[in-house]
Amino acid sequence: MPRPWKPSPTIKLSLATHVAAGFGLLAAPTAWPWALGAVALNQLILSGAGLLPRSSLLGPNLNRLPTASAQRREMALTIDDGPDPEVTPRVLDLLDAAGATASFFCIGRQARQYPAICRDIVARGHSVENHSDAHSSLFATFGPRRMRADINAGQATLADITGQAPRFFRPTAGLRNPFLEPVLASLDLRLASWTRRSYDTRNGNPQQVFARLTDNLAPGDILLLHDGNAARTADGQAVILAVLPDLLAAIDLARLTPVTLPTALT
Fold this sequence. Notes:
Blueprint: H1 9-27, H2 32-50, H3 67-71, E1 74-82, H4 88-98, E2 103-106, H5 108-113, H6 115-123, E3 127-130, H7 144-162, E4 168-169, H8 180-186, E5 190-191, E6 196-197, H9 206-214, E7 222-226, H10 239-253, E8 257-258, H11 261-264
Parallel strand pairs: 1-2, 1-7, 1-8, 2-3, 4-5, 6-7
Helix pairs in contact: 1-2, 4-10, 7-8, 9-10
């Protein structure tokens, strides 16, 4: 069932700005430079908000686990861009060895290519979430119809393969526009970002990636890594495979429990 869409204060202000500019032009046509300037500034603010993955200016955004979850000393590992036939099974083995669970944001087209891996993710106690169908680098420029079609295709694919409908969505690189939240509300999905990211799609240095993820590691953190499109270490290994054992040890040392996003919200 869809959930109600409630415009954020930023969106409400945007709508009010456009209405005021329209009425202003009717009342005083010579004031058009002021009206145009107000609308242009508003559009600049909206565009800037869409370029900030952790921002809640455009709508709700889970960038940290809820207070109750943090009080239980939980944190979340989120792993994007899979499933990858080489990397994902090895990531699952490492998680199993540590008794940890994670949320895998899978791409629809990848899932259709490797459905057994998606089913294995769920069978091992992790969650599969929606990372769009096409993983387009232009996702943030999509209009509402194209955006809904892309998200819905990924949702249908992942639900059909795993038997569980994803509850969370993450756009490509976390970038979006004001159309996203109404679309997610209509599909009963929640936007999820992160507390800290490792930049492990372009940084193959395990020590640097590890440091980014563990600096001031705390309850409630949501960490972002990649099994698909992962940067490679000097010896050609996906950097997540080099980092994950030490990361899981650091999480255990900090007395934190890695949980899936759905578990954190229960």
